[in-house]
Amino acid sequence: MVSLEPRESKEKQGNKKSTKLQTVIIPEELVEQFQKAETKVNQHFATMEWDPTNGRILIGGERYVFIRASSLRIGFPQAIASLLELDGGINNPLIVKLLYEIAKSLGKADAKKFHLSMGLDDPIEKLSTGPIHFAFTGWAKVDIMPESHPTPDEDYYLLYTHPQSFEADSFILSKGETSVTPICVMNAGYSAGWCSESFSLDLDAQEIACRAKGDKECLFIMAPKDKLEQKVVEYLDAKKKE
Question: What does pTM read for this prediction?
Answer without folding.
Answer: 0.90
